[in-house]
Design goal:
single chain; 282 residues; mainly alpha; Arc Repressor Mutant, subunit A; 3-stranded antiparallel sheet; 10 helices; 7% strand; elongated; binds zinc ion; DNA-binding transcriptional activator of the SARP family; transcription; transcription regulation; AfsR-DnrI-RedD_regulator; BTAD
């Protein structure tokens, strides 16, 4: 059962959230919340005071910033500390180092750590040809997302860089998952989502490529050519560039009437029934 003495849980894949013993304890003061979010994004890394000050005050820090930061650290520790533990420098979660801090978290205490571990496991499974396991891991990783990362900390602009990085990891995971769908021959199920992603992230050529492949798999080669024309237009309008070599050669393959599905992930699929029946060990 969850109690107030449980280690705090941090979530950054959505609104920033801290819970302890199942209860939300996210600091409401904006700078305290930003401080904790910043440390959570760099869990188990040393974060210099100078960097925290720069990010929290957007390089416009008053002379009193460092003193104010000490006050925030004390306040935040109170939130993180079970009543019976002293909240001095030897704090078990937020530890003070010379000229900086470290938020010490076990993997299960941060959704981002779990997300990255699942993504890596999924990629490993795919490389090993186990797309069923990869699918399971990728879906579990996606379920950790509760919305736009750090949605409540967007206003300040202080987290722009971190948010962009998280969004990139999210999109990469979607790409991996579409690869599994294509490998399974489920391209027709991916078309709708890919069309949307091509509009919202027009510069991700990988999505255009996957959309063209998905359309070919759905026996819609003419639509795949239209998708290429649209990708061409989007890339040109948004960035003044032309499709890269991968997209161009895929287009050429489809024009030539060749099989573009050679490009999708292939693994040795166990043919049902061909495996010798395993008997349980006595
Ligand atoms: Zn596969």
């Amino acid at each position: 059962m969850a109690t107030g003495d449980d280690p705090p849980q941090f979530r950054v894949l959505g609104t920033f959230e801290v819970t302890r013993g199942g209860r939300r304890c996210t600091p409401t003061a904006p700078k305290q919340r930003a401080l904790l979010a910043l440390l959570a994004l760099h869990a188990n890394e040393f974060v210099p005071t100078s960097r925290i000050v720069d990010q929290l005050w957007s390089r416009d820090a008053p002379r009193s910033a460092v003193a104010a930061l000490h006050g925030y650290v004390t306040a935040v520790r109170r939130v993180l500390t079970p009543s019976r533990v002293s909240s001095r420098n030897s704090h078990p979660v937020l530890s003070t180092r010379p000229s900086g801090y470290v938020l010490v978290l076990e993997p299960h205490q941060l959704d981002l750590t779990r997300f990255r571990a699942l993504a890596k496991e999924g990629q490993g499974a795919m490389a090993a040809g186990d797309c069923a396991h990869a699918w399971d891991r990728f879906c579990a990783a996606l379920r950790l997302w509760r919305g736009s990362p750090l949605a409540d900390l967007r206003g300040t602009g202080a987290f722009d860089h971190d948010i962009a990085r998280l969004e990139k990891e999210y999109l990469e995971l979607l790409r991996n998952r579409f690869d599994v769908m294509l490998c399974n021959g489920d391209g027709h199920l991916a078309v709708f989502d890919l069309e949307e992603l091509c509009q919202t992230h027009p510069l991700w050529e990988g999505f255009h490529e996957q959309l063209m492949l998905a359309l070919c798999q759905a026996e819609r080669r003419a639509d795949a050519l239209t998708a290429y024309a649209r990708a061409y237009r989007l890339l040109s309008n948004h960035a003044g560039i032309e499709p890269g070599p991968r997209l161009r050669s895929l287009h050429q393959l489809i024009l030539n009437g060749d099989d573009p599905l050679d490009r999708v992930h292939r693994h040795e699929r166990a043919t049902t029934g061909s495996e010798p029946a395993r008997t349980a060990s006595p």
